[in-house]
Write a structure and sequence with these properties.
The chain has one domain: Trna Endonuclease, Chain: A, domain 1 (3-Layer(aba) Sandwich), CATH 3.40.1350.10. It is built from two helices and five strands. The longest helix has 23 residues. The radius of gyration is 15 Å and the shape is globular.
Length: 135
């Protein structure tokens, strides 16, 4: 954040970023318990960002984490609209190109994190939630 003091950021923006970072940590913890191996977090590549890059056995998994404090505006996964999916796919393709492997089995998962007042979140994993356009 360019070393700017936190006072320069509006409180709702800070709360949203903190919520998102917390949700990504919870999602990573959740996936580890499911025996996923977390390889990378917050990969910025190809004009997009991949929240988590994981391995599920021999499958490379690109995970989008959506964290919400309520479902008043819909389920968290509903925020992964076609535009967001296209950016994730583009970023994943750039990552695969950097990896330099032609025959990699991969998929796109979504992990929803719903924060609750009790502090213990509700997590829902949507494996193979979407694929590249035309798949």
């Amino acid at each position: 954040m360019l070393g700017l003091p936190w006072a320069f950021f509006p409180r709702p923006l800070l709360q949203k970023r903190n919520l998102g970072a917390w949700g990504e940590r919870e999602a990573a913890r959740f996936l580890r318990r499911k025996h996923y191996r977390i390889l990378l977090r917050n990969v910025r590549i190809g004009g997009g960002e991949i929240d988590l890059v994981c391995r599920d056995g021999s499958v490379l998994v690109f995970v989008e984490v959506k964290t919400r404090s309520s479902t008043s505006h819909g389920e968290p996964c509903e925020a992964v609209d076609p535009g967001k999916r296209a950016r994730l796919v583009r970023a994943a393709y750039a990552y695969l190109e950097e990896l330099g492997r032609d025959e990699v089995t991969y998929r796109f998962d979504i992990v929803e994190v719903l924060a609750q007042g009790s502090g213990k979140p509700i997590l829902r994993h949507l494996p193979d939630a979407f694929g590249p356009p035309g798949s």
